[in-house]
């Protein structure tokens, strides 16, 4: 049963059947500048207006960069392929053993250990990672201009227990099953 206040003045609501109350809006892409954000949608090619409802980031073409899928209320989805400058990367598809960690490895924390005095990168497998959509569950590490052919990672399955350390080749995805 609804709380009486949740439908107060329902007789005064606008009739929006067949229409959307947020029609023909511009998509936004915000770039973090440290202390503030800047909308760069136009610079990255997201200029279509409409009634967008969800966004998922995933590497649809398995080339090491995230592509963007945007769902719309009254139109087919839009897929934007990321063809940015090639850079070093490493991807993981983690599989839990179904005993001490769930099969999807949700909650697993991975640290890419720094090479050459660099900074560590941290990723976690999430069940929800998009806005009204589900992005790629795989983990992706961007390595920039690092030319090392391997990377060392620490995997803490489901966020607990002793970490597993692995060294993997860069430039492609690895499927790792929990021991």
Automatic annotation (TrEMBL):
Signal peptide: none
Domain of life: Bacteria
Assigned keywords, A-Z: Signal
A Pfam family hit: FG-GAP_3
TM segment ranges: none
Residue span, ASPIC/UnbV domain: 105-166
InterPro entries tied to this protein: Crtac1, FG-GAP, Integrin_alpha_N, UnbV_ASPIC
Name of the protein: CRTAC1 family protein
Organism, as annotated: Paralysiella testudinis
